[in-house]
Amino acid sequence: MKLLVTGGAGFIGSNFVHYILKTHPTDEIVNIDALTYAGNLENLTDIRDNSRHVFVHGDITSTRDVNRLFREHRFDAVLNFAAESHVDRSLHMGPREFIKTNIMGTQILLDAARKHKVPRFLQVSTDEVYGSLGPTGAFTEETPIQPNNPYSATKAGADFMVRAAQHSHGLDAVITRCSNNFGPYQFPEKLIPLMISNALADKPLPVYGDGLHVRDWIYVMDHCSGIDTVLRKGKSGEVYNLGGNYDVPNIEIVKGILKILGKPKSLISYVKDRPGHDRRYAMDNTRAKTELGWEPAHRFEDALKETVNWYVANKTWWDRIRSGEYLKAYDKMYGWREKGDKGVQG
Ligand SMILES: NC(=O)c1ccc[n+]([C@@H]2O[C@H](COP(=O)([O-])OP(=O)(O)OC[C@H]3O[C@@H](n4cnc5c(N)ncnc54)[C@H](O)[C@@H]3O)[C@@H](O)[C@H]2O)c1
Known about the structure:
Layout: E1 2-6, H1 11-23, E2 28-33, E3 53-57, H2 63-72, E4 77-80, H3 87-92, H4 96-115, E5 121-126, H5 150-169, E6 173-178, E7 180-182, H6 191-200, E8 205-208, E9 214-219, H7 220-233, E10 239-242, E11 247-249, H8 250-261, E12 268-271, H9 286-292, H10 300-313, H11 315-323, H12 325-337, E13 344-345
Parallel strand pairs: 1-2, 1-4, 2-3, 4-5, 5-6, 6-10, 7-9, 8-12
Antiparallel strand pairs: 3-13, 9-11
Helix pairs in contact: 1-7, 2-4, 4-5, 6-8, 10-11
The structure holds nicotinamide-adenine-dinucleotide.
């Protein structure tokens, strides 16, 4: 298959690119990414010479960039990972960029996929569109959409546009909604990498509120295998929940990281809660399991240990992000990235 991956220089997108190159030896990927603060070409360094991966510096909100891609390639599927993805930024910096990329960008891709008769469109969505749960139960695909923050509201908006394109125009489209991911290449503003990097530097570990907000955690490679399964086996018009079957309070995750690193609990520092902070998320994976045969393959404890070890071994990677050095590296890397202004292999 020839796949268009958007946002493939970000955390999950770059892991997905690696996953596909490894598990599908004949698949080809065109990877478009605008390289916002969250996009990092250093996530793709090891595959820069892989002839089955082409990186294109471009913006999904630009009809020019998107149309050019669809004219140059014949895609078997579009997978839309590109997004403004950080809840805190949507709260404190405003939703404008979120509306632009998450809703407008998705619509531009949907229009192009329809115009060029792409056989499959996969929208990478989130459990956050369902809002918050009480003390029991789990989100199913039938749970009402009730987003509570600007990020999740724009992801819900995108889901509705995908649904409309499928329903009104017959575009073959599927949606995956996944829980909280962790693993290599996650931007250090997110919970797990932030806690690891602070603990390693003996800095306070800021935990929102009472630390009892529950999230369902999934190892990023399990998310990638779920997306891949839905891509190849999912039924057009369906939504598939993907979760890690591991819902625990944030404070337990933080304590787990401290234990792996052998650091004291006294580093934990409770800070003022995020406004409107959803209390509990949990995912019911029954549909993906019974209809597609997908299940997460990694045990949380093992995957967390592996992840912590990755951040310990790749300190230069996140140090360069924290210091802003990775942004400067773009200039150097543009040399190999945009030869002929068409994107190059890498
Ligand atoms: N991280 C999670 O736990 C999680 C959970 C469920 C779903 N998701 C969804 O998965 C997707 C990927 O999340 P992530 O954590 O990897 O995010 P990320 O912020 O790490 O990566 C997003 C990528 O999209 C790129 N991008 C942003 N705006 C763009 C634009 N206009 N055009 C092209 N590229 C653009 C960025 O440069 C970046 O590389 C998102 O759609 C997110 O909503 C994430």
